[in-house]
Task: inverse folding
């Protein structure tokens, strides 16, 4: 979701017409560009070219805005799934997983909010935490003949797989996409990084494997792990 995708009107010349949707889009754009989850309302106001106080007509402060970012990232997700890929339960889970992964790829600085913000109910499992997504998930798996226990087990296991895999990938992408103006490491962090690098250079086995370990195989690893998970989740395998 980008600012460009929003229709921005004018109340009068030189004055931007705001909405909650536009304010949330500005927060996502700010995260994408600056990679700083500790942004202030003033930062978002600057992104929109308005005073921070004018934002409070549409959001109840920074915490409300962060929750709205999470909601927006998942909004309408079931409708965005490719029908052609959801004709089997395996296809549905694979298609849903790829849709969630695309959010992490497109918004690596915002995606961790799906894990860190408190869900509406404690039993909702990030990143499958939207009631809309959960309802679609439960109804779809039930429609494919899963028992109630199998549906719940699949939901919990699948959510855990997505969260672990995608938070790791998002962390790597945050490192790659962080702006050069990001705050530098303090002396303690820098010293630790130097010590770890020295330990690596002194270990011939690690040096030998480092080129392979450094390769970005995020997409392939995600697919391989998901394939193993689908085999494990098969209803016939649990009988």
Result:
């Amino acid at each position: 979701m980008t600012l460009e995708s929003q229709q921005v009107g004018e109340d009068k010349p030189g004055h931007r017409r705001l909405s909650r949707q536009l304010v949330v889009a500005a927060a996502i754009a700010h995260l994408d560009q600056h990679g700083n989850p500790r942004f202030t309302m003033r930062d978002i106001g600057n992104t929109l070219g308005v005073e921070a106080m004018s934002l409070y007509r549409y959001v109840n402060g920074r915490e409300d805005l962060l929750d709205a970012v999470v909601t927006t990232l998942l909004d309408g997700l079931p409708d965005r799934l490719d029908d052609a890929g959801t004709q089997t339960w395996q296809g549905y889970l694979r298609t849903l997983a790829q849709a969630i992964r695309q959010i992490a790829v497109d918004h690596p600085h915002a995606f961790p909010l799906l894990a860190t913000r408190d869900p509406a109910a404690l039993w909702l499992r990030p990143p499958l935490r939207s009631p809309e997504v959960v309802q679609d998930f439960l109804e779809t798996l039930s429609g494919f003949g899963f028992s109630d226990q199998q549906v719940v087990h699949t939901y919990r296991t699948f959510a855990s797989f997505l969260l672990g895999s995608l938070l790791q990938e998002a962390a790597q992408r945050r490192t790659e996409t962080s702006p050069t103006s990001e705050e530098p490491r303090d002396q303690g962090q820098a010293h630790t990084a130097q010590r770890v690098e020295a330990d690596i250079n002194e270990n011939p086995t690690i040096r030998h494997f480092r080129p392979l370990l450094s390769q970005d195989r995020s997409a392939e690893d995600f697919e391989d792990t998901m394939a193993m998970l689908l085999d494990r989740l098969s209803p016939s395998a649990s009988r």
